[in-house]
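For the sake of clarity, the format in which proteins appear in this thesis is described at this point. The record quoted next illustrates the convention:

___
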Amino acid sequence: ILLLLRNPKDIATSFYHFSNCMSPLPSYETWDDFFIAFMTKKMPWGCYFEYLSKWNKYADDENVMTITYEELKENPVLGVKNIAAFLGVSLTEKELQSVVERSSFQSMKKNSQKTHGSFGNVLFRKGGVSDWKNLFSEDQNEKMDKAFEERIEGTKLGTKLKYEAYCKA
């Protein structure tokens, strides 16, 4: 099992934009409305913090590899090498480079119409890290920090998320 995680502030930001582009999902008049729903467990797929808590008990299982979106952005070559090793796949240097290039956000966004049809425009928006800084108010930032500290901070997955590096203003 490959468990891909992303920091909760960017998850909220990304899901806000995703929700407002997908007609079957609830849309939100404002970021503030969305943030309240996100923090009060009123999301269509449940609470992110509960999701992390449930997966945390499997973090050390030998058949589970946890990797973060941020890790893959920082060092895609190492990320692909680690995933390939976990899956027992050996790659030549040329294959490794091909996987890294073809799995980059820019490449996937460029090919999204071909691979996902009109849904590609919804799935591939920016692909960055720390876009949350464009939406979160100071109060929302503090509330998210508090929720993280209370629910996830001391856990294996909480540590893996490097919250201090990616979620502190």
